[in-house]
UniProtKB/TrEMBL annotation:
Transmembrane segments: none annotated. It comes from the Bacteria. InterPro entries: Flavodoxin/NO_synth, Flavodoxin_dom, Flavoprotein-like_sf, Protoporphyrinogen_IX_DH. One of its GO terms (biological process) is heme biosynthetic process. Residues 3-179 form the Flavodoxin-like domain. SUPFAM superfamilies: Flavoproteins. It comes from Cryobacterium lactosi. This is Flavodoxin. GO terms for molecular function: FMN binding; menaquinone-dependent protoporphyrinogen oxidase activity.
Length: 179
């Protein structure tokens, strides 16, 4: 079974998640290939996949344009296959905010409601991301200099690899069972 793992990553953290998902799918015996959403497989090649995992980094409550464009452009094909979506973005170690709300639930990107209706994903997950201030572009470095921003945008790698791998194994089990 062929699975395309397509991602949009600004600084590489989301790409790392996609690669880990692809590796777990491959360990389960699936033919998993990881693509950058900016240069995905051609339309005729997309139709040759049996399932999809599509993810994006999240900025200002939205997926990156390349990932959203991929889903919209290939919507008819994606609708005919199993698809899982993931988002990468919250930073830090706290899973709830000051009001006790689940950070993952409150950071679901705006596009997910649309995609739930248009491609009907099997599931969507929000994973914590990573940020290296030294790797940021000048505008993003400047944003972190605003008062209080460094606390709201903490530096570090907050990806939970155990959680990511477990989710990928769930996907693999679902696909192997269906196949």
């Amino acid at each position: 079974m062929r699975v395309a793992v397509v991602c949009a990553s600004q600084y590489g953290a989301t790409r790392g998640i996609a690669e880990r998902i692809g590796a777990e799918l491959a360990l389960a015996g699936l033919d998993a290939r990881v693509y950058d959403a900016a240069s995905p497989p051609h339309a005729e090649d997309v139709a040759g996949f049996d399932a999809f995992v599509v993810g994006s980094a999240v900025y200002m409550g939205h997926w990156l344009k390349d990932a959203s464009t991929f889903v919209r452009r290939h919507q008819p094909t994606l609708l005919e296959h199993q698809i899982w979506l993931f988002s990468s973005g919250p930073l830090g170690t706290e899973t709830t905010d000051a009001d006790g709300a689940d950070i993952r639930e409150s950071t679901v990107p705006a596009e997910i409601t649309e995609f739930t209706n248009t491609v009907r994903p099997v599931g969507h997950r929000v994973f914590f991301g990573a940020i290296d201030p030294e790797a940021l572009s000048l505008p993003h470095r400047m944003i972190r200099k605003f008062p209080g921003a460094a606390e709201k945008i903490p530096a570090g790698d907050f990806r939970d690899w155990t959680e990511i791998e477990a989710w990928a194994r769930e996907i693999a089990r679902s696909l192997v069972k269906a196949g």
